[in-house]
Amino acid sequence: MKSKHVHYRVKSIYDDLTRSERKIAQLVLNEPEKVIKMTASELAKASDTSPASVIRFCKSIGIPSFPDLKLQLSAEKDAPVVQQYTDISPDESPEDIKNKLLGNAYQAMKETIQLVDDETLTSAIQLISAAPFIYVYGIGSSYLVAENIAQKFNRIGKVCICQPDVHLLIASLTSAPERTLFIGVSNSGETSEVLALNDLAKSRHLHTISITQFGANSLSKQADLSLQTVKSKEAELRSAATSSLTAQFILTDLLFHTYVLKNYDENMASIRTSRESVDQYKQQTTKKNSKFRQKYKTNKNKA
Amino acid sequence: MKSKHVHYRVKSIYDDLTRSERKIAQLVLNEPEKVIKMTASELAKASDTSPASVIRFCKSIGIPSFPDLKLQLSAEKDAPVVQQYTDISPDESPEDIKNKLLGNAYQAMKETIQLVDDETLTSAIQLISAAPFIYVYGIGSSYLVAENIAQKFNRIGKVCICQPDVHLLIASLTSAPERTLFIGVSNSGETSEVLALNDLAKSRHLHTISITQFGANSLSKQADLSLQTVKSKEAELRSAATSSLTAQFILTDLLFHTYVLKNYDENMASIRTSRESVDQYKQQTTKKNSKFRQKYKTNKNKA
DNA sequence: TATTAAATTGAAATTTTATTTCATAAGTGG
DNA sequence: CCACTTATGAAATAAAATTTCAATTTAATA
Hints:
Chain A is an alpha/beta fold. Chain A is built from 15 helices and 5 strands. The first copy, chain A, binds a DNA duplex through helix 2, helix 4 and helix 5.
């Protein structure tokens, strides 16, 4: 498990380093940003060693030259910690957990976004545009994705129904008008409920879009259009579906934003109007609720 | 609106560059990765100019030296395009949309994660551990967050109820046992429903945690413990709450993972067992559903 | 503990790379 | 077409990186 990150690389062979190499390692670990701005001799002076040791340190950690070390550090400065879906182990520091979570999420989003080609996206937008309204369905964590899609599109006046009750949904689909779109969300692409609904929709000649993870799966094959998110590796099992969710959310965002841009002005107007309406409602209910709240009002000073 | 990115910087003053500087600019724009590995004279040769021109080019785009240019390029290589919550405008290319979405999401997550201090996190974990069970509530897009929290914790056997019906939730809270935890999610921190529920919980001496955006707000003030996500700027209005959701999700993940690590082994066992159960259920229902699916089976060959 | 071999280290020499200087060439406006 | 500005690269210089090597420390062995 060799990470390319200088930080981890240094940590992992720290014990094998010589005394003066360790002095240099300290600085590299603790103040990488400063090291980036130093010359080899400056770093030598700062660590109370010699330029020769600095060069030796670079070689020791597997980096061919000092300028290369600086380039590496610079590359990592703002880049998320991406190490092929690392799982999180029990002896991790809070800092490490944070970095890994961020890195995993970033990687999942990035790869997912790269996976979607513009053509597919355009087709998806067309199906959405053509639909009088949309049904979305997902179960478990995919339900969150479905609900998110529905919320976003409803906000711009594109009617989108996320009905978690399969029976009711079947009834709706059965009597849905032409061009109605069904979006099925299933990470595995094998969830029987979603497959069944997709079949039903197809039998009624409705359009269908699937959102699944990457790779061959029944739902992708059977839907008119298949959108796929990155497939995350073993780490998935442990990290409780975290990165697949993130991936599906960024895909939703991409879909939504691309759609909004198709008809920029009118959609923007819708978003604004819906915001305003919500704000108005909030003001009204705040008044109403104040009575209710009075009853349970707690001391403002916290314990 | 000056971006620090070399790419944009070069583009913006491209017209003011001299003939040979432009040749160099081409290479920097088109093959930054290769440039990173070159020396000044190599870049000169590759662009059919001279080292002197390379240096002049660096100065022209406002970078003091050639090694600095390489460092900059390296820093930007893997870093997401982060430009303070840029909004997405109608004339954007698909590529730009993707980069901005990714950049915004990444920045929101990163800043949120940095915002949470370990102490608060530890306290939150303690409240969760101590609770016999948990109620979560959120409305609108915050409902997604609440539901996500519930799903994650339930998966490891920590009973967590996300009840969207306020009336039913009030009933439950009213008769909840000691140490029961109420988690209220509201991006603004001013949603009246959530405030009312927090009041109720407090009046019953239950513990409460709030999840809101950063800054002073009623909910944060009134909850026992306040978790905050980064507050995104104006772009928010247009991008339909995208980055605040992302931020809340990463916060959930952080909370969840930290909690799981507290009792690593037993929690891990729970996750595995719950996965297995779901898999078993899936196998069973697949059989059942096959009959239903037969009825609507469509041609496997897509149009 | 004394002795020797191996490893570590930094000063100085060397090499590589970056930068500046300056003479020449290419434009530009009159 | 001339004077003058700007642009350019060859060569000189400066700066940085790297290697060499002798001195020194450390470890191993008798």
